[in-house]
């Protein structure tokens, strides 16, 4: 399917391979999220690098052994003409990371409590040293447009992740989900002319410059309205334990505030002990096991032995 597109390298270089790659990956991530799915195709290495750069608490620690990805220009270290992911070509330390314990990663994601737990713009300081081909499509990064790969059409929606672009995140407009698009498969369409079939979406892609999202730069703006909306429409926690811990912590802090405001300081001792227990529980869970131990099972067994 792809090989005929490489017959002429001059022509092949004019194709938007990045958008096609993302379209294919988005579709596979959708398939992989279904109950009963056991595998996912596409450029999954992009998902791994995306996660490592944005969630440092689940990423291995680079030992900075390899400097092959840099060169010196006028006394400054510059990235070589290689993909950005090449920075991860290094030796790692995984002493603080789980290796294959899924429950530990779920718990780590549920335990985020601070804004800086997520690095929303991991490449901000590198933009000036990237090869030109990495930034020559920058004008389309903020375009709400379809991404197309043969039979696949997936939407690029920057208006829902504005903080990734250093902008204020407001409540985004509703976006329609076209179930019919997800039913289109290659089976039975071997001779389909996808240029004709997806002509309307191709036209939107060609006019992507007309759908650029704009918003104020994020300079200390309050995202409270957005967060209130987001909490009302999303699933905030991956696991039940994360939700229970958050509820318990909020309840204890609310009671603590009530006791202080009403002058019942004698009751604070019990609440302070409750906070210590919650903190210790969170500390245990944040120490992600790298020995293949199920963190949840280990803590449950420890609690059982105390009864």
UniProtKB/TrEMBL annotation:
GO biological process terms, alphabetically, are:
meristem maintenance
Compositionally biased, Acidic residues: which spans?
297-307
- Enumerate the residue ranges of region (Disordered): 286-307
Q: Which domain of life is it from?
A: Eukaryota
Q: What residues does the Aminotransferase-like plant mobile domain cover?
A: 1-231
Q: List the PANTHER family hit by this protein, alphabetically.
A: PROTEIN MAIN-LIKE 2, PROTEIN MAINTENANCE OF MERISTEMS-LIKE
Which protein are we looking at?
Aminotransferase-like plant mobile domain-containing protein
Please tell me the species this chain comes from.
Answer: Stephania yunnanensis
**What does UniProt list as this organism's lineage?**
Eukaryota, Viridiplantae, Streptophyta, Embryophyta, Tracheophyta
């Amino acid at each position: 399917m792809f090989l005929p597109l490489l017959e002429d390298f001059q022509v092949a270089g004019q194709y938007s391979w990045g958008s096609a790659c993302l379209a294919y990956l988005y579709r596979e991530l959708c398939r992989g999220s279904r109950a009963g799915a056991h595998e996912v195709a596409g450029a999954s290495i992009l998902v791994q690098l995306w996660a490592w750069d944005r969630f440092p608490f689940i990423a291995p620690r680079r030992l900075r052994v390899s400097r092959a990805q840099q060169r010196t220009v006028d006394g400054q270290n510059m990235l070589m003409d290689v993909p950005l992911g090449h920075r991860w070509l290094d030796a790692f330390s995984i002493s603080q990371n789980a290796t294959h314990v899924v429950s530990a990663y779920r718990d780590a994601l549920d335990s985020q409590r601070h804004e800086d737990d997520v690095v929303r713009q991991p490449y901000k300081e590198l933009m000036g040293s990237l090869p030109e081909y990495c930034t020559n499509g920058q004008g389309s990064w903020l375009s709400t447009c379809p991404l197309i790969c043969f039979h696949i059409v997936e939407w690029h929606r920057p208006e829902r992740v504005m903080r990734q672009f250093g902008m204020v995140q407001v409540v985004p407009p509703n976006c329609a989900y076209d179930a019919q698009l997800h039913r289109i498969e290659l089976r039975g369409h071997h001779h389909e002319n996808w240029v004709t079939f997806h002509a309307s979406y191709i036209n939107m892609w060609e006019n992507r410059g007309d759908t650029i999202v704009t918003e104020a730069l994020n300079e200390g703006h309050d995202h409270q309205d957005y967060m209130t909306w987001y909490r009302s429409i999303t699933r905030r926690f991956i696991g039940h334990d994360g939700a229970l811990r958050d509820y318990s912590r909020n309840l204890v802090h609310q009671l603590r505030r009530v006791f202080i405001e009403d002058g019942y300081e004698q009751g604070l001792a019990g609440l302070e002990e409750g906070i210590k227990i919650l903190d210790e529980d969170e500390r245990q869970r944040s120490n992600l096991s790298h020995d293949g131990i199920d963190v949840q099972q280990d803590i449950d067994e420890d609690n059982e032995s105390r009864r």
